[in-house]
């Protein structure tokens, strides 16, 4: 093994011993051997070698093996579209849905649909809520609760579908930095109490499993439990970053709706996500959940509706079994990858804050494969626009791709950090990626740089 392989092995926890045998029902060959560091590098050779890509959280990554499998699926359609549509598409999508069942611990395949991404899933759920307002099942002024740090597209969807239909939106103000789950739980309870004091019925709570920016893993099981205690009608978990990053267990979490992108942390090609809709006697209204694109399958249930929304490329939804097989090439499979990514992102985050004299944005227990890293105040990040311009500067001048976050100072605060970077760790990352970012920041500070010097 080369020196680079040894280093890559240290970063990613790759070992030479054979993995545990996988049960036959997963259809993964029992002779599968563990991936080597050089094979990892080859799987992601299509990445731009000039860029330190420490932003897996935004768009994910897809290995060459899966891209090859996807191309085979694309050719199934291109060779004979009629045969693909009438004979192959539905069973192939069902195979992908069925392969996900044990990964997310759903009770029935009928609860699992495949859609393009978490934004599409959000439209499915919120159009369902909008119809309830428009048809009089919900009253004007009834509430949807969402987090202040909800993903931008989700916030706009809530206002587009709920506010325009007569619903009232209450945002949960979450603290940041945050080092205690109890602070999040307290703020969530406060939001529900506001609705109670105003005598408003809470129809839906939209809760992130992992907030996007700033990123924090939330105690979703506890928040769902509180919703049940407080009589919230339905709970929708936006787990866009979750699968492949944290444990995702539908029965334990207990939400009515849950979505997660497979292309962020599960190595799927863009774009594919699952949407879980809980089936129960108390949740019969999920029969009124439909795909936002109405096509020939409308009325046949969301899983079937989602499997055909017109002529398009469905290949990313068809390679889920191959993706799960790819995961088994790593020691410990998906769980092993998640554990090592968490360990490494904390290690790299702590290395960076030590170099810059700053701090992490949350406790290690409240992050997964991403963590917020405080940036030196000398950089002069004083607005959202500064964060955007500085991110572009890192990309263009230093070859570092990393999202930046502006945190407005709190009244009376002295010396609080106003800038944070969200760093990710995925199996293709090496320590040099983070050294490159560290050195870029140090150079800017040494040069007396501030964001005020950047033009739009």
Automatic annotation (TrEMBL):
Residue ranges for the region (Disordered) are 1-22
> Residue limits of the Aminotransferase class V domain?
92-360
Q: Which UniProt keywords apply?
A: Pyridoxal phosphate
Q: Which domain of life is it from?
A: Eukaryota
Pfam families per the record?
Answer: Aminotran_5
Please tell me whether the keyword Metal-binding is annotated for this protein: no
Q: What is this protein called?
A: Aminotransferase class V domain-containing protein
Q: What organism, scientifically named, is this protein from?
A: Saponaria officinalis (Common soapwort)
């Amino acid at each position: 093994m080369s020196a680079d392989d040894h280093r890559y092995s240290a970063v990613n926890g790759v070992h030479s011993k054979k993995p545990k045998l996988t049960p036959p029902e997963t259809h993964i060959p029992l002779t599968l051997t563990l991936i080597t560091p050089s094979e990892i590098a080859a799987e992601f050779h299509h990445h731009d070698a000039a860029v330190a890509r420490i932003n897996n959280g935004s768009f994910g990554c897809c290995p060459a093996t899966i891209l090859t499998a996807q191309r085979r699926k694309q050719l199934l359609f291109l060779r004979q579209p009629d045969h693909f549509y009438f004979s192959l598409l539905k069973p192939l999508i069902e195979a992908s849905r069925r392969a996900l069942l044990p990964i997310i611990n759903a009770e029935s395949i009928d609860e699992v649909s495949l859609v393009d991404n978490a934004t599409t899933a959000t439209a499915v759920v919120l159009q369902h809520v909008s119809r309830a307002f428009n048809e009089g099942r919900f009253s004007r002024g009834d509430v949807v609760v969402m987090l202040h740090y909800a993903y931008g597209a989700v916030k706009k969807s809530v206002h587009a579908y709920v506010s325009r239909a007569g619903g009232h939106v209450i945002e949960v103000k979450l603290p940041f930095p945050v080092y205690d789950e109890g602070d999040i739980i307290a703020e969530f309870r406060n939001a529900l109490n506001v609705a109670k004091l105003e005598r408003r019925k809470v129809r839906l709570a939209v809760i992130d499993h992992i907030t996007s920016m700033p990123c924090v893993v939330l105690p979703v099981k506890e928040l769902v439990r509180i919703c049940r205690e407080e009589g919230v009608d339905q709970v929708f978990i936006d787990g866009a970053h979750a699968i492949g990053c944290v444990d995702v267990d539908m029965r334990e979490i207990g939400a009515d709706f849950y979505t997660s992108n497979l292309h962020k942390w599960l190595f799927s090609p863009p774009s594919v996500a699952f949407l879980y809709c809980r089936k129960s006697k108390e949740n019969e209204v999920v029969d009124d959940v439909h795909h936002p694109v109405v096509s020939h399958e409308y009325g046949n249930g969301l899983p079937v509706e989602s499997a055909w929304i017109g002529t398009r490329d469905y290949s990313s939804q068809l390679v889920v079994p191959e993706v799960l097989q790819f995961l088994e090439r790593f020691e410990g499979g998906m769980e092993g990858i998640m554990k090592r990514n968490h360990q490494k992102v904390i290690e790299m985050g702590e290395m960076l804050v030590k170099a810059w004299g700053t701090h992490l944005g949350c406790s290690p227990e409240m992050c997964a494969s991403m963590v917020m890293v405080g940036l030196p105040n000398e950089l002069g990040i004083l607005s959202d626009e500064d964060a955007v311009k500085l991110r572009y500067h890192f990309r263009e001048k230093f070859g570092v791709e990393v999202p930046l976050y502006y945190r407005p100072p709190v009244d009376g605060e002295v010396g609080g950090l106003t800038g944070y970077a969200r760093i990710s760790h995925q199996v293709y990352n090496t320590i040099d990626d983070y050294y490159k970012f560290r050195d870029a920041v140090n150079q800017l500070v040494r040069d007396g740089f501030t964001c005020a010097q950047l033009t739009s």
